Amino acid sequence: MDSEVSNTDIICRVCRSEGLVERPLFHPCICTGSIKWIHQECLMQWMRYSRKEYCELCGHRFSFTPIYSPDMPRRLPLKDLAAGLLSSIATAVKYWFHYTLVAIAWLGIVPLTACRIYRALFAGTIDAILTLPFDMLATENLASDIFQGCFVVTCTLLAFAGLVWLREQILHGGPAPRGRSCGERWSGC
Length: 189
Ligand SMILES: [Zn+2]
Ligand SMILES: [Zn+2]
Known about the structure:
The protein folds into 2 domains: about 5-50, 2-Layer Sandwich (Herpes Virus-1), CATH 3.30.40.10; about 85-175, no CATH class. It is built from 6 helices and 3 strands; from the N terminus they run E-E-E-H-H-H-H-H-H. It has helices spanning about 40-50, 80-125, 125-130, 130-135, 140-170, 180-189; strands at about 5, 25, 40. Bound molecules: zinc ion (ZN) (2 copies). One zinc ion binds near residues 14 and 17.
């Protein structure tokens, strides 16, 4: 991007103020006239807001050049390289740990708990309910219990979703007409 700080009638197309030495105006696209100039912060803000990386008027894609400090070494010091590598590894391990934990919880602990509680409740004996905490920690039939638990959890979720759907149907008296639901959405905004 080229910068220019001179003419007084050159103003930013976003905030309408002039360019200053510490806040120069740029012309990042091929637009001309009064909309040619823009502050870097105004452009960044507009890009964040519009989620576009090109000028809406001329279609030119904005490009940025990284500017390094003059005392920047020509080669990256080994210490910084190692620190960067370590932090990348730490982030990867953290994510891996997080997803493994989530997978163990949803594919292991939740179905297993559901299956054993379900069995204890429907066994119909006080004994089964009293020994539930010990049954929870038992390791026999682990795989088949987890498999059955997945089925129990799926049925429970489906039943719950069905109840919510039924409640909606009862409260609103069937699906809303197209126009009404549209109007509701607009007034909600
Ligand atoms: Zn501006
Ligand atoms: Zn433009």
